[in-house]
Amino acid sequence: MSKTIRYEMQWDEDTHQLAERAARAAGLGSIKAYVSQLIQQHAPETLQTYNQVKLSNAEFDAFCQACDSPQPVSHKLKRAAQKLDQEGFSLDEQG
């Protein structure tokens, strides 16, 4: 069983009433259930949208060409990368 995390929200009265009405209309007993259902239904699609890159054929060809013949890395970029390494910066989600 996953850990339950508490989350509080402050809404203006109109938004709160709208959420209550929508929860009842959806047959759910609470705003919490309604918001949870919305997240479960819509979050995967939202994440997929932001995790995809769509290119035209011309853009893809230009990308492939850039990958096949990369430009030399500038001294300034190398220094910036070294500084991030020294600071312990990591791109992975665990680090």
Automatic annotation (TrEMBL):
Gene Ontology biological-process entries: regulation of DNA-templated transcription
Gene3D superfamilies: Single helix bin
Superkingdom of the source species: Bacteria
Keywords: Toxin-antitoxin system
Stretches that traverse the bilayer: none
Presence of the UniProt keyword rRNA processing in the record: no
Family the UniProt entry places it in: Belongs to the TacA antitoxin family.
Protein name: DUF1778 domain-containing protein
Taxonomic lineage: Bacteria, Pseudomonadati, Pseudomonadota, Gammaproteobacteria, Pseudomonadales
